[in-house]
Specification:
single chain; 622 residues; alpha+beta; FAD/NAD(P)-binding domain; Elongation Factor Tu (Ef-tu), domain 3; Arc Repressor Mutant, subunit A; 4 domains; seven-stranded mixed sheet; six-stranded antiparallel sheet; 21 helices; binds flavin-adenine dinucleotide; MnmG_N; flavin adenine dinucleotide binding
Length: 622
């Protein structure tokens, strides 16, 4: 059935697998996506939303690199919000609610439109391994398909076990079977495997919700979007709704604790700390008398609602009784109960920066299988694994992003250097240089790199260059032109600033904290300049960021450059740490296990002290 050898086989069509497939195929590799169900490519297992704090930046980075997640989100969004707009632009984070069904459909259509992609619906049970190198896969139906590399993106499916109260059954997601075989084979080959847990809330019939008891949460008035390409902006949106739990709800939930797999010891693995279940929340924060619940529509044309904040694996009768005590849900009809799922993952310290495994050549792992949680984290790893799988078979240098270049760089470096004992999700606080890693400049940081790889189109590169050229031109305009006190003092006084006494260069006045660029674009001559040069909103925002944050950006860039020097100090691959008697035993063990590629990476391993790094530097003649 499969006569020829593929360049890349991607196992699993979730967010990681879909991006890996797109990247590999767009780099010219003959790519096969083998997934258990062709109907669920790009399926959102949990929340129908992309982005959010730090995650939104990742989607922008994926987009700048030529991935599809941002484009698909824009095409299927039903609501858009730029979060954190009251804070500085380094913290702005785009988030969109998506139409769940349209999102998966659009992923499938996008991959079908991509050259070099073949599809096959089956479960991969085993890998073909020859001389320490992966050479293809064997499926449950017994197909042997050969390839030069394999990307594993099995998500929550490996030996997946679903829990609802005392009920337990095998599954990779509700209504879908679990996957078997791969864990056992990899463990036999010497890999370490672990178990993690995640959970999801009930879904409710929107016709049974009383919205008058909730507070409406509309989308942004002027919605932005994810992709730097010309995807459409939303012209209409659907609202979400907020309500709160109360003491009665908490008491009802507590009644189910002794039947809860979380508390009676049935679930032993660790769940995502920052997406706790409702039972976890009322247990851990017993002094809080209420928790926020969001009712989020699942699409344009469905009555199904996702009940964000009410993730639970309590028995279904308890779920229903407790939910019906939340204002607005008194008559709620539950369409699908919440549940928890346990699944296998492989500690990511077993991977290189390219996401290739250290043990088996040309075998890559991306997504939840690496211990992460979240669509964005998964998609970005899939993209990077897909790119690197192709670069390796083409005999080219790997594509690695540094921590000062992208959240994706931070994510992968954290995973392979520190590992993770609980589902890893991205936060802005994980990035040392978050003023550099903004959602507005992901294109500036990454598009040229992607173009040079052959992934981002020339059109993308041209758009990016035009945006930054225009911002520079406007900055120059403000540097060259002055403003008179009478033109701006009314605004300054209204905002309680110190009025100007004499004409000043516009640039130094815009930099004042009480003023905004929009205060200047109202002036006739500035307005004329902007209209003549056809500035759009994004270009104006970019100009403002460059003016207002110039000092911070410069300082952070200097710090990043310092780190980069250590990043360039490569450690020889055959180094034997055991000979360093003056290094701590813990450092020797960890360095031997993780095999850091650079001195900077070594310095980030927990348990490796600055003194240990000095020993290493002396050995390297520094
Ligand atoms: P998945 O999206 O799980 O996709 C895996 C794909 O691989 C599937 O298409 C599957 O069919 C296929 N597959 C698996 N094994 C094989 C095989 N052997 N052969 C062929 N195909 C195979 N994330 C959050 O950020 N917050 C949450 O609160 C949250 N809650 C969740 C709750 C539940 C119940 C679940 C299931 C997931 C939850 N997630 C949550 C996680 C989120 O869904 C994942 O992080 C994301 O989908 C991971 O993407 P992935 O591509 O790694 O895997």
């Amino acid at each position: 059935m499969f006569q020829s050898e593929y360049d890349v086989i991607v196992v699993g069509g979730g967010h990681a697998g879909a991006e890996a497939t797109a990247a590999a195929a767009n780099l010219g590799a003959k790519t096969l996506l083998v997934t258990m169900n062709l109907q669920t490519i790009g399926q959102m297992s949990c929340n129908p939303a992309m982005g959010g704090i730090a995650k939104g930046q990742i989607v922008r980075e994926i987009d700048a690199l030529g991935g599809y997640s941002g484009i698909i989100t824009d095409k299927t969004a039903i609501q858009f919000k730029m979060l954190n707009q009251s804070k500085g632009p380094a913290m702005w984070s785009p988030r969109a609610q998506s139409d769940r069904m349209r999102f998966a459909e659009e992923w499938r259509l996008s991959l079908e439109r991509t050259e070099n992609v073949d599809f096959f619906q089956d479960m991969v049970k085993n890998l073909i391994i020859e001389n320490g190198k992966v050479c293809g896969v064997i499926t449950a139906m017994g197909m042997k398909i050969r390839s030069k590399s394999v990307v594993l993106t099995n998500g929550t499916f490996l030996n997946g076990l679903i829990h609802i109260g005392e009920k337990q059954f095998g599954g990779g997601r509700m209504g879908e079977s679990a996957a078997f075989g791969i864990t056992e084979q990899l463990v036999d080959l010497g890999f370490e495997a672990g178990r993690m847990k995640t959970g999801t809330p009930p879904r409710v019939d929107g016709r049974s919700i009383d919205y008058t008891k909730m507070v409406e949460q509309p989308g942004d008035e002027n919605p932005s979007k994810f992709s730097y390409t010309n995807t459409p902006k939303l012209t209409k949106q659907r609202s979400c709704w907020i309500t709160y739990t109360n003491q009665e709800v908490h008491d009802l939930l507590r009644e189910g604790f002794d039947r809860s797999p979380m508390f009676n010891g049935t679930i032993k693995s660790t769940g995502p700390r920052y997406c706790p279940s409702i039972e976890d929340k009322i247990n851990r924060f017993a002094d809080k008398d209420r928790h926020q619940i969001f009712a989020e529509p699942e699409g344009w044309h469905t009555m199904e609602f996702y009940i964000n904040g009410f993730s639970t694996s309590l028995p279904d009768d308890i779920q229903a009784r407790a939910l019906r005590s939340v204002p607005g849900f008194e008559n709620a009809k539950i369409l699908r109960p919440g549940y928890a799922i346990e699944y296998d993952y492989f500690p990511p310290t077993q991977l290189k920066h390219t996401l290739e495994t250290k043990l088996i050549d040309n075998l890559y792992c991306a997504g939840q299988i690496n211990g992460t949680t979240g669509y964005e984290e998964a998609a970005s790893q899939g993209l990077m694994a897909g790119i690197n799988a192709v670069l390796k078979i083409q005999g080219k240098n790997p594509f690695i992003l540094n921590r000062n270049e992208a959240y994706i760089g931070v994510l992968i470096d954290d995973l392979i250097t520190k590992g993770t004992e609980e589902p890893y999700r991205m936060f802005t606080s994980r990035a040392e240089y978050r003023i550099l890693l903004r959602q507005d400049n992901a294109d500036e940081r990454l598009t040229r790199k992607s173009f040079e790889l052959g992934l981002a189109s020339e059109d993308r590169l041209r758009r990016m260059e035009e945006k930054f050229d225009k911002a520079e031109k406007l900055v120059n305009y403000f540097e060259e032109n002055s403003i008179k006190p009478q033109e701006i003092n009314d605004v300054i006084e209204e905002r309680e600033g110190t009025p100007l006494k004499q004409p000043n260069k516009m640039i130094s006045v815009i930099s004042r904290p009480e003023l905004k660029l929009s205060d200047f674009t109202k002036l006739d001559r500035v307005k004329e300049f902007i209209e003549t040069n056809e500035y759009d909103q994004e270009e104006l925002e970019q100009t403002e960021i460059q003016i207002k944050y110039k000092g911070y950006i410069k300082k952070e860039q200097q710090n990043a450059d310092k780190l980069h020097r250590l990043e360039n100090l490569k450690i020889p691959a055959d180094i034997d740490y055991n000979v360093f008697g003056s290094m701590s035993i813990e450092a020797r063990q960890k360095l031997t296990k993780i095999k850091p590629a650079t001195v900077a990476q070594a310095s980030r391993i927990s348990g490796v002290s600055p003194a240990d790094i000095s020993v290493l530097l002396i050995y390297m003649g520094r």
